[in-house]
Amino acid sequence: MAVRTLRKEYPNLNLPDELFAIAEDIAKKLGKEVERMRFTKPLLLACLYAAARTSGYPLRLKSLQKLTGVSKKTIVRHHRLIVRRLGLAEKPPDPKLFVKKFCKELGLPKEVEREASSLVELDGPNLAPAIAAGAVFFSARRRGFSLERERVVRLAEISEPTLTKWVRFFEERV
Fold first, then answer.
1. φ, ψ at 139 (rounded to 5°)
2. Looking at per-residue confidence, does 53 or 38 come out higher?
3. Domains of the chain, earliest start first
4. How many angstroms separate the first and last alpha carbons of the chain?
5. CB burial class (10 A; 0-12, 13-18, 19+) of residue 96?
6. How far is CA 126 from CA 26, 86, 166, in A?
7. What is residue 109's predicted lDDT score, i.e. its pLDDT?
8. Residue among 96, 99, 78 nearest 36 (CA)
9. What residue stretch is flagged as signal peptide (predicted)?
10. pLDDT tens for each residue of 65-124
Protein backbone atom coordinates (compact mmCIF):
# COMPACT_ATOMS: atom_id res chain seq x y z
CA MET A 1 0.00 0.00 0.00
CA ALA A 2 1.00 3.65 -0.22
CA VAL A 3 2.42 3.92 3.30
CA ARG A 4 5.44 1.93 2.09
CA THR A 5 6.18 4.70 -0.40
CA LEU A 6 7.00 6.97 2.56
CA ARG A 7 9.93 4.72 3.48
CA LYS A 8 11.28 4.94 -0.08
CA GLU A 9 10.64 8.64 -0.46
CA TYR A 10 12.04 9.58 2.96
CA PRO A 11 14.79 7.07 3.84
CA ASN A 12 16.05 9.47 6.54
CA LEU A 13 12.94 8.80 8.69
CA ASN A 14 14.75 5.85 10.38
CA LEU A 15 11.58 4.41 11.89
CA PRO A 16 11.02 0.76 12.81
CA ASP A 17 9.22 -1.58 10.42
CA GLU A 18 6.52 -2.23 13.05
CA LEU A 19 5.56 1.43 12.93
CA PHE A 20 5.10 1.31 9.16
CA ALA A 21 3.03 -1.89 9.56
CA ILE A 22 0.75 -0.18 12.09
CA ALA A 23 0.46 2.86 9.80
CA GLU A 24 -0.46 0.50 6.96
CA ASP A 25 -3.24 -1.02 9.09
CA ILE A 26 -4.54 2.43 9.98
CA ALA A 27 -4.61 3.40 6.30
CA LYS A 28 -6.48 0.19 5.43
CA LYS A 29 -9.05 0.86 8.15
CA LEU A 30 -9.66 4.29 6.72
CA GLY A 31 -10.63 2.57 3.49
CA LYS A 32 -12.89 4.85 1.51
CA GLU A 33 -11.57 7.99 3.17
CA VAL A 34 -8.03 7.21 2.07
CA GLU A 35 -9.14 6.38 -1.47
CA ARG A 36 -11.09 9.60 -1.68
CA MET A 37 -8.04 11.55 -0.58
CA ARG A 38 -5.80 9.67 -3.00
CA PHE A 39 -3.10 8.83 -0.46
CA THR A 40 -1.73 12.34 -0.16
CA LYS A 41 1.59 12.70 1.62
CA PRO A 42 0.04 14.56 4.58
CA LEU A 43 -2.52 11.80 5.04
CA LEU A 44 0.14 9.10 4.93
CA LEU A 45 2.33 11.03 7.36
CA ALA A 46 -0.70 11.42 9.62
CA CYS A 47 -1.19 7.63 9.49
CA LEU A 48 2.46 7.23 10.47
CA TYR A 49 2.07 9.76 13.30
CA ALA A 50 -1.11 8.03 14.49
CA ALA A 51 0.77 4.72 14.45
CA ALA A 52 3.48 6.27 16.61
CA ARG A 53 0.95 7.73 19.04
CA THR A 54 -1.05 4.48 19.38
CA SER A 55 2.11 2.45 19.98
CA GLY A 56 3.76 5.02 22.27
CA TYR A 57 6.74 5.45 19.91
CA PRO A 58 8.67 8.73 20.42
CA LEU A 59 7.96 10.56 17.17
CA ARG A 60 7.63 14.33 17.17
CA LEU A 61 5.69 16.41 14.67
CA LYS A 62 8.59 18.81 14.44
CA SER A 63 10.84 15.96 13.29
CA LEU A 64 8.33 14.84 10.68
CA GLN A 65 8.08 18.40 9.40
CA LYS A 66 11.87 18.77 9.16
CA LEU A 67 12.37 15.45 7.39
CA THR A 68 9.48 15.67 4.94
CA GLY A 69 8.79 19.36 4.40
CA VAL A 70 5.07 18.89 5.19
CA SER A 71 3.86 21.41 7.78
CA LYS A 72 2.90 20.30 11.29
CA LYS A 73 -0.45 22.01 10.88
CA THR A 74 -1.29 19.91 7.81
CA ILE A 75 -0.19 16.65 9.45
CA VAL A 76 -2.21 17.46 12.58
CA ARG A 77 -5.31 18.29 10.54
CA HIS A 78 -5.16 14.88 8.84
CA HIS A 79 -4.26 13.19 12.11
CA ARG A 80 -7.39 14.57 13.78
CA LEU A 81 -9.49 13.23 10.91
CA ILE A 82 -7.97 9.76 11.35
CA VAL A 83 -8.50 9.77 15.12
CA ARG A 84 -12.11 10.92 14.73
CA ARG A 85 -12.99 8.43 11.99
CA LEU A 86 -11.34 5.42 13.61
CA GLY A 87 -11.75 6.37 17.27
CA LEU A 88 -8.11 5.58 17.99
CA ALA A 89 -6.93 5.41 21.59
CA GLU A 90 -3.55 7.07 21.69
CA LYS A 91 -0.95 6.62 24.41
CA PRO A 92 1.02 9.59 25.65
CA PRO A 93 4.69 9.31 24.73
CA ASP A 94 6.83 7.47 27.26
CA PRO A 95 9.82 9.54 28.49
CA LYS A 96 11.88 6.33 28.76
CA LEU A 97 11.63 5.84 24.99
CA PHE A 98 12.97 9.35 24.47
CA VAL A 99 15.81 8.60 26.91
CA LYS A 100 16.77 5.54 24.88
CA LYS A 101 16.59 7.50 21.62
CA PHE A 102 18.61 10.46 22.95
CA CYS A 103 21.32 8.27 24.49
CA LYS A 104 21.68 6.35 21.25
CA GLU A 105 21.93 9.52 19.14
CA LEU A 106 24.34 11.18 21.59
CA GLY A 107 26.52 8.06 21.76
CA LEU A 108 26.20 7.66 25.53
CA PRO A 109 26.77 4.33 27.32
CA LYS A 110 24.08 2.06 28.79
CA GLU A 111 24.90 3.17 32.34
CA VAL A 112 23.79 6.72 31.52
CA GLU A 113 20.67 5.37 29.82
CA ARG A 114 19.81 3.21 32.85
CA GLU A 115 20.24 6.07 35.32
CA ALA A 116 18.31 8.51 33.14
CA SER A 117 15.51 5.95 32.69
CA SER A 118 15.22 5.52 36.45
CA LEU A 119 15.01 9.31 36.87
CA VAL A 120 12.07 9.79 34.51
CA GLU A 121 9.56 7.87 36.61
CA LEU A 122 7.23 10.87 36.43
CA ASP A 123 3.81 11.76 35.16
CA GLY A 124 4.12 14.37 32.48
CA PRO A 125 3.48 12.86 29.08
CA ASN A 126 3.32 16.18 27.26
CA LEU A 127 6.76 16.95 28.60
CA ALA A 128 8.29 13.56 27.72
CA PRO A 129 11.11 14.94 25.52
CA ALA A 130 11.99 17.65 28.05
CA ILE A 131 12.02 15.22 30.98
CA ALA A 132 14.10 12.73 29.01
CA ALA A 133 16.58 15.38 27.84
CA GLY A 134 17.01 16.69 31.39
CA ALA A 135 17.53 13.19 32.77
CA VAL A 136 20.04 12.26 30.05
CA PHE A 137 22.00 15.50 30.45
CA PHE A 138 22.02 15.21 34.25
CA SER A 139 23.05 11.53 34.19
CA ALA A 140 25.79 12.09 31.61
CA ARG A 141 27.29 15.00 33.54
CA ARG A 142 27.00 13.11 36.82
CA ARG A 143 28.93 10.18 35.34
CA GLY A 144 31.66 12.46 33.97
CA PHE A 145 30.73 12.56 30.31
CA SER A 146 31.13 15.91 28.61
CA LEU A 147 27.98 16.78 26.78
CA GLU A 148 27.21 20.10 25.14
CA ARG A 149 23.98 21.66 26.32
CA GLU A 150 23.23 23.00 22.82
CA ARG A 151 23.49 19.49 21.33
CA VAL A 152 20.92 18.10 23.76
CA VAL A 153 18.61 21.08 23.24
CA ARG A 154 18.79 20.65 19.46
CA LEU A 155 18.21 16.89 19.62
CA ALA A 156 15.25 17.13 22.03
CA GLU A 157 13.84 20.19 20.25
CA ILE A 158 13.36 22.07 23.51
CA SER A 159 14.60 25.42 24.80
CA GLU A 160 17.70 25.81 26.93
CA PRO A 161 15.72 27.16 29.93
CA THR A 162 13.50 24.05 29.77
CA LEU A 163 16.57 21.80 29.86
CA THR A 164 17.97 23.81 32.76
CA LYS A 165 14.67 23.51 34.65
CA TRP A 166 14.65 19.72 34.36
CA VAL A 167 18.35 19.38 35.20
CA ARG A 168 17.75 21.42 38.39
CA PHE A 169 14.73 19.24 39.14
CA PHE A 170 16.90 16.09 38.99
CA GLU A 171 19.71 17.75 40.98
CA GLU A 172 17.26 18.45 43.79
CA ARG A 173 15.75 14.98 43.57
CA VAL A 174 18.98 12.98 43.74
1. -65, -40
2. 53
3. 3-86 (1.10.472.10), 95-173 (1.10.472.10)
4. 49
5. buried
6. 23, 23, 14
7. 93
8. 78
9. none
10. 988 899 999 999 999 988 988 888 887 778 888 898 899 889 999 999 999 888 887 544
